[in-house]
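Subject: Protein record for review, amino acid sequence with backbone structure tokens
Why sent: The fold of this protein is of interest and is recorded here as tokens.
Notation: Tokens come from a learned vocabulary of local backbone shapes, not from coordinates.
Attached in line: The record itself begins immediately under this heading.
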Amino acid sequence: MKGYLKALILTLVCLAILIPFASNAPDGLESVAETLGIEKHEPIWSGLMPDYSIPAIDNPYLSTLLAGIAGVFLVLGVTFLLGKTITKK
């Protein structure tokens, strides 16, 4: 268990250090759509963390950091549950 905790702490520290280097440029699909002149429609629902940020937090670094931490724990939780489900069989 201590190894998992160390890996989690290391992941969160790396996340906190690397967040300022995240690109603000559009991803490949958005870039191609802009190049082809395809208009972007307003989404029906923008999600809980649009563009990897939390809209309620004004500080962009903190907003992105908390969204990243939430993403790490979400992936860990889903992976843990999936692993438990698969190993029961």
Remarks:
- The CA atoms of residues 55 and 84 lie 34 Å apart.
- The first helix runs from residue 2 to 18.
- Helices lie at 2-18, 28-35, 60-87.
- The mean pLDDT is 87.
